[in-house]
Write a structure and sequence with these properties.
The chain is of the alpha+beta class and 141 residues long. It is built from 4 helices and 5 strands, in the order ααααβββββ. The chain has 2 domains: 39 residues; 89 residues, Beta Barrel (OB fold (Dihydrolipoamide Acetyltransferase, E2P)).
């Protein structure tokens, strides 16, 4: 009988401690819970750049996520002062030109980029365009 009471006391003490932690640290617990849920979420589906380059019309106007390495960056400034910024992202032996509104990434960076595809002019041999919505560094470079 004494043994059963000891377990009951331990159980009540653990429950009280857990309740105190939940009461005094709710924001920290919520943050850890959200981070754990995010870790379990599947990442975006990666579309190979070579697939977009091989059939740009199929992807025209669609949002995709690609991975690759920045091989070049450019900024063109018109006489009006308006700037156009873009970089080339290479992956799977093909390239896509990524247009950006904000800063350019460094050459050699490995990136995961989400954006909307625009087919280049037909017959011009121009790589398809990707209007960048999100960018994050990925493994490597």
């Amino acid at each position: 009988m004494q043994h059963g009471r000891a377990w009951l006391v331990v159980l009540v003490a653990v429950a009280a401690a857990a309740g105190a932690v939940w009461y005094f640290f709710p924001e920290e617990i919520r943050k850890v819970t959200v981070e754990a849920e995010r870790a379990l979420e599947p990442g975006p589906t990666i579309t190979p750049i070579r697939d977009i380059a091989a059939a740009p019309r199929r992807f025209d106007g669609k949002e995709v996520t690609v991975q690759g390495v920045v091989t070049s960056t450019s900024e063109l400034v018109a006489s009006s002062g308006q700037a156009s910024r873009f970089y080339t992202l290479r992956g799977e032996g093909a390239e896509v030109v990524v247009t950006v509104r904000d800063s350019l990434p460094a050459r050699g960076q490995s990136l995961t980029v989400t954006g909307v595809v625009a087919e280049g002019p037909p017959g011009k041999g121009v790589a398809p365009r990707l209007a960048e919505k999100r960018r994050e560094r990925s493994g490597g470079g």
